[in-house]
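Record 1 of the preview.
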Amino acid sequence: MQPETVTTTPAAEEVDKTKFLIAALNGTALYVLAYYVVWAVHQAAKLEVSRFYHLRGTWDPSRIVYTLADGEWWRMAIIGVHGAGPVACVLMGMVAFRWYWRRERARRGTLKLLLLWIAFHCCNAVFGALLADTLTHSGFWYVSDWLLQLGNAVDVILALLAGMVQLALGYFGAIAFLQAHDSRTVMRYSHRQLMVVSTLIVPWLVGGACIALAKRPYLSVYEGVHLLMMGLLVTPLGLGCLNEVFSDTVERPQPTHVAWGLVALAVLMAVAWYMALSPPIPFG
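->
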């Protein structure tokens, strides 16, 4: 069945543009908020394992930096501190997606899109991170390198496989992402390209830029590459949305409006994160 084609007047088209601008603003706020939630869990898990092993270092707005000499490290400590964050994100991502799929996707509101962005960021904190960290020989790369101890070639193969998994999850996540939107205007198939730009591309680029600016001058190459790796999920997700004719939404969606509460919460989260960790907090 071919998607319906709806003819709109110039006035209606102007209203449509406003709705997509609102969707872009709300989506960016949700993207940023979800990122900080996932990053907080990731870093807190890493810090707890560091304290368990009595390691010392500092925690700044962008990363945890260790002040140990190379000779002070041992195998279990390396695997533990660099694997704790991704493991926590795997569990959190599964819970968030299950919550979204079983309870929220048929309901109206923004909670379902927040849960989905949390799941996507968790995915990036595992698969995207393994690829990014293998390129920079940092972070999650230490886990595969020290756990398997099979050489750089195997590490690179695992990183490439992780990147492919992220691409596949992005593409097959299209249906779930489409079901996370309430607006009939945004969901109309004739507006699908505009929907992808406003609800995916803008949140990724603008949201990532806002996160990076909010962490200056502490933003590390480590975190910057992680932000870019989200593109491995967003790009195939956008292509999947373009290929899907699905355009249904909830029976009585909420009127399209700016979720100022979410926007304010995202800003407060970024400000509070920076103020709490600047100057960096020592531990150990």
